[in-house]
Design brief:
Elements (H helix, E strand, L loop, with lengths): L1 E5 L8 H11 L3 E5 L5 E2 L2 E2 L10 E6 L10 H7 L3 E4 L6 H9 L3 E4 L2 H6 L4
Parallel strand pairs: 1-2, 1-5, 5-6, 6-7
Antiparallel strand pairs: 3-4
């Protein structure tokens, strides 16, 4: 199961970093998209939007004010679900995703992993 982290960072204090670390620890494959082409856990953070194959989940770590620029991109990736982590909730985008058959889930990736619900 492959997860794309949007808002990836190499700062260990950021939740996106912690999510990448925990996803890998739980055996999940990850892709990273962020503002700077840095490296974490042996993977480079992509700064250009790529078409990732076999994507199950997109987990968001960008606020709702920056999300509109990602709407078409994320819908085009056709993930099974998009996780809106705390602070990223966006009813407009959640509705759009639901209308095209993508699960929009307001949850915390770290909590889902910690409780075996990911």
């Amino acid at each position: 199961m492959k997860t794309l982290i949007i808002g990836a960072s190499n700062n260990p204090e950021r939740y996106a970093y912690k999510a990448a670390e925990r996803l890998l620890a739980h055996g999940h494959e990850i892709e990273l998209l962020g503002l700077r082409a840095e490296e974490i856990f042996g993977k480079t953070i992509d700064v250009k939007r790529k078409q990732y194959a076999n994507l199950d989940t997109v987990t968001l770590y960008v606020g709702p004010q920056r999300q509109p620029e990602y709407y078409d991109y994320i819908v085009g990736l056709k993930p099974r679900r998009v996780i809106f982590n705390p602070g990223t909730e966006n009813s407009e985008f959640e509705t759009l995703l639901s209308e095209v058959g993508i699960i929009a889930e307001e949850a915390c990736t770290l909590v889902l992993l910690g409780t075996g619900q990911f």
